[in-house]
Amino acid sequence: MNITKVLSQNNTNDPHLLGRGDIRKLLAQYSLPAIIGMVITSLYHIVDSIFIGHGIGAAALSGMAVTFPIMNILIAFSTLVGVGGATLTSIRLGEKDEEDARSILGHVAVVNSVNGIVLGVVSLIFLDPILKTFGASETLLPYARDFLSVYMMGVPVGYVFIGLNNIMRVTGYPRKAMLSSFLTVAVNVLLAPLFIFVLGWGMKGVALATVLSQLTGLIWVLIHFFDKRSFIRFDVKRFRLSSRTVLNMMAIGVSPFLMNLTASLVVSIINFGLMKHGGDLAVGAYGIINRINYLFGMIVIGLTMGMQPIVGYNYGARQLDRSFKALRYTIVAGTVIMIFGLLCSQIFPHLIMGMFTSDSELLDIAIRGLRITTIFFPVIAVQMVISNFFQSVGKAKIAIFLSLTRQLIFLIPLLLLLPGYFGVDGVFMSMPAADMISFFVTVLTFAYQYRGMRART
């Protein structure tokens, strides 16, 4: 299938095509821009790490890895509103309630602004204690502090940008949402090496490049939503903040919120385990591994982002067959992607890890860790897609349960148990073991819920 043709099919920007168009074409049409956006964003993180590794040093990579749990917390509060608002918008459009869909746009902007300001200020005030709580050693603390002291100032900008970009995607503008990601990454990739290699600003330069790139993206999406030609746009005169709408958004968004919050706890435990059994370099190795795993995970998330408006719209329109068909296609595509990720990680680990650092000790740990953590990669796609399916149809409790099974119920106990027997390898082994167990739980849960949903049609 020609990608250019697929991306150009949505010329009418009419979200109601979700209820009558060919599912495979719609999934490609909505997923490809999201996937490209996710890949671009993931490559930006990878390129940033390459700049840090070669421009600042191996210790800086480890310092960056210490910030991951905090970043997960920040993402959690962003998705609580942004993902919930996008899902609710899709359902309202399926119900032909365009007035309420427009209202949700304003709610996302206001609530994410408040969240970003509060979290940014609190984090800056208690930055050092927070970093030490999450495992920053005296060696790594200066690098992590330099990055977050600048990054936290731009949190409100990033929150509003991500939230509005999600709304743009589900209201008939997937290509524009993709271009938003491309724009932010392009600005970051241009500014980061300038700030690191030319101006010598170190980790502060990395953070400043990130904030300025998100500000560029925010300006882009604001122009779109103030344009009278946009299907869903800002209408300040008719906007009123509704507690019911805010609670509905959060009820749906609580699944990815808890998933990211739990991820923060998990990464903290991983960092503590690696620090105990392998030292600072083991933490840095995980930081690199996380970037690679994140790339393939983000591609699957891009697929689910394309699936979400199709499933949500057709569920709201009581066309369950179309929702389930979108789910099947997404599972197959996601599994193929993760199989490709598995093969790359097992066959070319030296080439992949060599991009980030030339430190031989760091390379040895990273290569071994990559091979271990990706061994059950394909089953991750099934768990991710099915969990997102329940989120897309508004079944928040089930989505929350599935989101928590891998990280909270299975992974944390394994992280506390296996390193005592296998050291650093035990930390890495815990991840694929949790993947496989949560896969079986997810499949069984879906089989049970599927029968119930069919019985009510």
TrEMBL record:
CDD domains given in the database record: MATE_MepA_like (cd13143)
GO CC, alphabetical: plasma membrane
Membrane topology reported for the UniProt record: Multi-pass membrane protein
Pfam families: MatE (PF01554)
Record's signal peptide: none
Keywords: Antibiotic resistance, Cell membrane, Membrane, Transmembrane, Transmembrane helix, Transport
InterPro entries: MATE_fam (IPR002528), MATE_MepA-like (IPR045070), MATE_MepA_subfamily (IPR051327), MdtK-like (IPR048279)
BP terms from Gene Ontology: response to antibiotic
Entry's transmembrane regions: 27-47, 59-83, 104-127, 147-167, 179-200, 206-226, 247-274, 294-315, 327-353, 365-386, 398-422, 428-448
Record localization: Cell membrane
Any GO molecular function: antiporter activity
Positions in coiled-coil regions: none
Similarity-based family: Belongs to the multi antimicrobial extrusion (MATE) (TC 2.A.66.1) family. MepA subfamily.
Name of the molecule in the record: Multidrug export protein MepA
Encoding gene (name): mepA3
